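Reviewers asked in the last cycle whether our approach scales beyond single polypeptides. To address this, we selected a multi-component target totalling 631 residues and predicted its structure end to end. The input consisted of the following lines:
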Amino acid sequence: MAGRRVTGVAASEGVAVGPLFRYRPQRLEPERTSIREEDVGREVERFHAAVERVARRISQTREELERRGSSEEAGILEAHVELAKDPELSSEVERKIKEELKSPEVALLESAEEFAKLFEGMEDEYLRARADDVRDVSHQIASEIMGVSSSSLFSQMEGPSVVVAQNLTPSETATLPKEKVLAIVTAEGSKTSHVAIMARSMGIPAVVGLGGEAVEELSTASVVAVDGGEGYVVADPDPEELTLFEEKERRASAERESLETFRHVLARTRSGRRIEVSANLGSPGEAEEALRWGAEGVGLFRTEFLFMQRESLPEEEEQYEAYATVARTFSGRPVIVRTLDVGGDKDLPGIDQPEEENPFLGWRGIRMSLDEPELFKIQIRALLRAATEGDLKVMFPMVTGVEEVRKARRLIEECERELEAEGKPKGELEVGVMIETPAAALCAKELAREVSFFSIGTNDLVQYTLAADRGNEKLKSLYRADHPAVLKLIEMSCRAAEEEGIWVGVCGEAASDPDLIPTLVELGVSELSMSPPSIPRAKKVVSEL
Amino acid sequence: MFEREVSVVPKAGLHSRPAARFVKTARGFRSDIVVVKDGNEANAKSPLRLMTLGAKCGDRVTIRATGEDERQAVEALAEILSKEEE
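The resulting structure, written as structure tokens, was:
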């Protein structure tokens, strides 16, 4: 007989089969409800000591999440630390201890419940959900006072199991014994709930939002099979289903392992051609993670993060630090920095940007930089100085012809002279252009004589060539990097580069597309740059060419 | 006493993460600080009270401080509310 199958939300990819561990949070039942008057001082102190310990523990978990790259979850725990130390909560707890002679654990649970109820009565859905945060934190503090360790929550879990729960709080998810958790299944939650996000960052398969009834029903099963990519769970699978899951598991783990072996190799085709597989970065903080994924360099370092959401433009020093940090992290491997690429769709502090009807055909990228040389020169000076720290290169976005490149080069020379006159050390800065307008591809021959490399920005090149907005749902079938018109422009750029002896990279989404990599390599591209998690797969594809 | 009225700029309003930053800054000052919205007052050092104000992006709130560093406190906190979170 086939097992019962329940469908939920596919929250974290992967499959697993195993015994079920039904997690039910311990209901904290304080044995001591009242205290003696002479103990008031001591009990207040115990409460504060427990708050301190719990706040410290949450902070440590927060740091760990930050290191693992789950910054969103880290943010939640950051808020939990402040909740634990809430002065209004403390004073209410103290009042209950002193005036009502309640034990600190009871005083805390009662006070927290009052706040939780307050949140539950609010209109805003987000704020209603904060009731759980208050309960989560106060539960941890009360456990601490009572000497119930929170790590014992999962202590009855003997071997590797699938954890099935109504819901898991951030603190519960963070304290899961990861090595034993095969998968997570919850009644509540969505793709964006804490447990889903954390499961993805821990690489644990998860299906959430099954509903309370389905989870209760599942709980009687002895074995469950979970498919986190498809979003379903099978209770007590029959032999046929088990075989299917084993097959899925085998394929997935073979895929993982085979990619793992490619993570840190230098990508090379069968015929021995070296293809550099690099990372696209949006901020210096992503550099370490990119190295862990096996990045051989940085093919696109966007600099917009330095300029957005702030009241004044960044100084040279701040920019220098950002560029130098990435150059040092990649110790001698190439790091290509793209100069500021914003237009009328994003605000820049202190720059008067006119309202534009078509910001993507407007005053942006190199066009703006050349019109605002003082702004541009700060960036160039910072880059020239940071070039002493590694193999830094610069490239210009939105180029349409040689005149722009010549102007930009003159500004670079000006900056070099300035730095020399000031006696400031500077390094060599190779110059390249992005090929992202059809005009640049059509003028590739002339451009190639002016620069040291091309980087094809396929996302914009596709959009501009096909006159198709990539965000437009209705144009989805038209917006294709493998459209013959786009491929012709890429081919022209590659041929011009070859004739002039410069190299070509690709930094759009096409660079990580397993179906397009063979064509790009065939056309002569020698560097592929992508978001870091795609690197191992791209290396594998290259190695099989 | 020193006070200032500001609009809440962060998209998330005075919710958990912005509230955490706001509270951390508030706790760095000695003054008593409250945030007032629609006549309701909340202790600026208490994330629980602050969140129950339900201040959303675009709402006008008053930051009021009383104490030796009241002016600096109000200015530092107004600054946090007047820009998007980094």
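The beta strands of chain B are 2-7, 32-37, 40-43, 60-66. We regard this as preliminary and will revisit it once experimental data from Aim 1 are available.
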